[in-house]
Design goal:
This protein has 410 residues and is mainly beta. It has one domain: YVTN repeat-like/Quinoprotein amine dehydrogenase (Methylamine Dehydrogenase, Chain H), CATH 2.130.10.10. It contains one helix and 34 strands. A five-stranded antiparallel beta sheet has the order 1-7-6-5-4, with no helix packed on it. The longest helix is centred in the middle third of the chain and has 4 residues. The protein starts with a strand and ends with a strand.
């Protein structure tokens, strides 16, 4: 059934909804090896020559990578992403990050699943230890040699978890943790990164969500925060046993965002298409700090700079969606830009780098006192739901049709 075509040419979202880990690592602008960046929070340090004025940037290279929403991840001078040909083939791509030269690709039979969108992969490629890990739209997990794209092992989540493909396909990006690969799809599974064999599967069977699990530490113990279609769970990272639970109804059973963890594992923030909430976690229970039914985002979360959250409030394909800054502690609004339109964003130092749904790249100051736009540049047509990436002094953006652009200082 799966006709794998191997040629020398590689790939990563979704991301790319690898993963949001809040284990404390220093910020780095050098690489973006997994979903949500090196620190799992979509925040990186700016290179010394980073210029927030986009007029001083040029398109260094441009590629067509197929349908989908996989973000661009980078490691060891290579850039990875994924796409679908619109027929029956999905592909993982690997490019030279500096030149755009194709190094390898890996193609396989995979479902498009174009339900209320163009279809194609949701997840992003995770790169580490000489390996590239990817999850197809229909739940095939691949471990490839990052140098040449050779398949090392593969697993089908539908068989392993005894489940059907979720309505909008699999969305979790793979997360590396202590020799395991963590993936969430209703249940969370820890696959041995060397063999692909499961070391554990979480003990609660829930309807699949589309976000990525988050590993975090509280009081010296490791936990996993994961969203499903019916709420948020905190699991013991050693065996997947559920420690705490917060039920949450969402529209269309679509939880696609990744939770964020703050205050040394004591607070968990999530967004859905119905509301947002900040929860306190004491090691055993989740309790509400604040909840806001008017603050919604179906696909992505926010970035934290200082004590201020920056993000978008509203739905995709909705011109009334706003851009905001809010206080992390009490959710008090600092400022709002109404009718901004749907967008995704990262922070490069103290600069917000925003990609609008309509394909405009925007830079703005991460200033909690007021919104100050610095520059704006139209780069892409079609819908853009994929987060921008900043790595090694380059900005990467793409749209759902697979037009991938690398920007460098002019």
């Amino acid at each position: 059934m799966k006709n794998r075509i191997f040629s020398f040419f590689n790939g990563r979202l979704l991301a790319a909804f690898a993963a949001l880990t809040f284990l404390m690592h220093p910020l780095t602008g050098g690489e973006w090896p997994h979903w949500l960046g090196p620190n799992g929070d979509n925040v990186v340090a700016a290179a010394e020559d980073f210029d927030p004025n986009l007029e001083n940037w040029k398109i260094s290279w441009k590629k067509e990578v197929g349908l989908g929403y996989s973000t661009i991840t980078t490691a060891d001078g290579k850039a990875y992403t994924m796409g679908h040909d619109g027929g029956s083939k999905e592909t993982i791509y690997c490019f030279d990050a500096a030149t755009g030269e194709k190094i390898w690709d890996f193609s396989y039979e995979g479902a498009l699943l174009p339900r209320m969108h163009v279809g194609g992969p949701n997840a992003s490629v995770t790169v580490g230890g000489g390996k590239a890990f990817a999850i197809s739209k229909d739940g095939q997990v691949f471990c490839l040699d990052a140098e040449n794209g050779r398949e090392i092992w593969s697993v089908k989540l539908t068989e392993l978890l005894r489940m059907e493909v979720p309505q909008w396909g699999f969305g979790s990006s793979p997360v590396e943790y202590k020799g395991d690969l963590l993936i969430s799809a209703g249940r969370t599974v820890a696959l041995d990164r060397e063999s692909g064999k499961p070391n554990w599967i979480s003990d609660k069977d829930r309807k699949a969500g589309y976000g990525t699990p988050v590993v975090f530490t509280r009081s010296g113990k490791d936990y996993i925060a994961t969203m499903d279609a019916e709420g948020l769970s905190v699991l013991d990272a050693s065996d997947g046993v559920e420690i705490a639970r917060h039920g949450q109804r969402v529209k269309y059973n679509m939880n696609a965002s990744t939770p964020a963890v703050f205050a040394n594992g004591k607070q968990v923030l999530f967004y859905t298409n119905s509301n947002s909430a900040m929860l306190a976690f004491d090691g055993e229970n989740l309790t509400s700090i604040w909840e806001d039914r008017k603050l919604q985002n179906a696909l992505s979360g926010s970035v934290l700079i200082g004590k201020a959250l920056y993000g978008v409030n509203g739905g995709y394909k909705n011109k009334k969606t706003s851009l905001y800054s809010r206080n992390l502690g009490d959710n008090k609004e600092n400022w709002v830009v109404p009718s901004y339109g749907y967008a995704t964003l990262i922070a490069v130092g103290n600069t917000l780098v925003i990609l609008t749904e309509d394909g405009e790249l925007v830079t703005a100051s991460a200033n909690e006192e007021q919104y100050r736009e610095l520059s704006r540049k139209k780069l892409l047509e079609a819908i853009c739901w994929t987060h921008p990436t900043y790595a090694d002094g380059r900005i990467f953006v793409r749209n759902e049709h697979g037009v991938l652009i690398c920007l460098t200082p002019a």
